[in-house]
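Thread: quick sanity check before group meeting

JM: Hey all, I'm pulling together slides for Thursday and realized we never actually wrote out the predicted structure for the chain we discussed last week. Dropping the sequence here so it's in one place. If anyone has concerns about the input, flag it before I start.
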Amino acid sequence: MRKLTIKREKSIIGRLGIMKVYIEDQTSDELTMNVETENGPVKVSCRKLGEIKNGEEVSFDIGESAARIFVIADKLSKDYCNECYQLPKGSEDIYLTGRNKFNPAAGNAFRFDGNENAITLKSRKKGTKRGLVVLILSMLIGFTLGYGITSAILGIINNREKSFESGGMTITLNKSFTEEDASGYDSLFVSKNVELITMKTSFKSFGTSHLTAAEFASTVIMNNKDIEDCEISESDGVAYYTFDAVAQDDRTYTYCVYTYKTDSAYWQLYFITRENKYNRYADDIEKWAGSVKFE
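JM (edit): ok, ran it. Output follows.
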């Protein structure tokens, strides 16, 4: 036997979450992880070693065979919020360090220090893509993917203005929109052809208030490999960027993301449309984004 010690460095990111540590064990049926290899993805059976809190150091007794270890937030998000580390064969004790990193699309996943090999980077990129598309698109666009969020489909779209309020933010849309369950996000507003989700990141949870709205948007882009080529533009002084994502129905959707900074938080507003309808609604989206006010 040998001892595996993991030090979770204290971080403002994900500080309240308790991470779960699993080890590869083909005799266990506790958890199955999809793992990237040089020959493609494989399924790996795992058993739980324990849990690790923010700033905590924990040790586990493990065997001397080579094995993968995994750090996840929970079983529901394990396919995109995870970190895998390959332990070598041997009898010497192993000491690892890491921390949760800011990346909303990957659930602010835990990352081991120095774990930057090609397979790991490929796995992270795949997880980020899945998190971005599944969590934002699949969970929130119910009329397309059927994840339980029902969009309001109106027989006749009424274009008269209507204001909506969420957590100190007010936006003027029109009466074709209704507010639906946000399923973990701050708010969700739904119409037949456009959906809007809002995400608020407080300075305290982000760890700094010194970035401008545009710099915050750049940070989000840099931490999402699938949209790292996005360029930030401005409309009436408000920073925004756009990107396309393919859903599970093989349809492409366009995301137009406006970013704001208030006295206590950064806000991101995701306007989502079918790609072939974006040009039709682009002017409306710009108008709606320009109507945003904060208390």
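AS: nice. Helices lie at 118-138, 142-145, 203-206, 213-222, 278-290. The radius of gyration is 21 Å.
JM: adding both to the slides.
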